[in-house]
């Protein structure tokens, strides 16, 4: 996977799904359901404060017996999450996510949320790269630009 950057190569034209720390777990769950996403950024203005994922909702709200309607995100979010800048290579995101078992990683500049990359986003990049590699190898092996006569 050559030097594909998080932005704009992996994620582009992304609408961020953000809620303030005072929003409730229920509000986060409703936003996730409405947008069919698995994580919400917790922000004050554009400043990233945390992230709440489906896993957080399951473990920190449901399994803990908390009331989603009254539980603020500030009590169940992962505060000060790891981030990468938009210019980071996709492979850096993959390595960080694999090392810490993340499925979502905020993209930030000077503490300001500018995007979120998911393992699904990265999978799509890897898949496209592998398909391109296969096409290139097939073209080399079966014709299209390769000729034994032209080499000497």
Automatic annotation (TrEMBL):
Q: Does the keyword Transcription regulation apply?
A: no
Q: Which domain of life is it from?
A: Bacteria
Please provide the record's keywords in A-Z order. Answer: CBS domain
SMART domains reported for this sequence: CBS
Q: Pinpoint the CBS domain residues.
A: 10-68, 77-132
The protein's name is: CBS domain-containing protein
Source organism of this protein record? Azospirillum cavernae
Organism phylogeny: Bacteria, Pseudomonadati, Pseudomonadota, Alphaproteobacteria, Rhodospirillales
């Amino acid at each position: 996977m050559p030097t594909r950057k998080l932005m704009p190569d992996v994620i582009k034209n992304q609408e961020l799904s953000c809620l303030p720390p005072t929003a409730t777990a229920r509000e986060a769950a409703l936003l996730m359901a409405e947008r069919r996403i698995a994580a919400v950024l917790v922000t004050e203005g554009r400043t990233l404060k945390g992230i709440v994922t489906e896993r957080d909702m399951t473990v920190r709200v449901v399994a803990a017996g908390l009331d989603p309607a009254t539980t603020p995100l500030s009590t169940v979010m992962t505060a000060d999450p790891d981030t990468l800048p938009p210019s980071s290579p996709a492979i850096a995101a993959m390595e960080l996510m694999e090392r810490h078992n993340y499925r979502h990683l905020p993209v930030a500049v000077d503490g300001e949320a500018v995007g979120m990359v998911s393992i699904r986003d990265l999978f799509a990049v890897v898949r496209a790269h592998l398909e391109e590699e296969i096409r290139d190898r097939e073209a080399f092996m079966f014709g299209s630009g390769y000729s034994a006569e032209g080499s000497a």
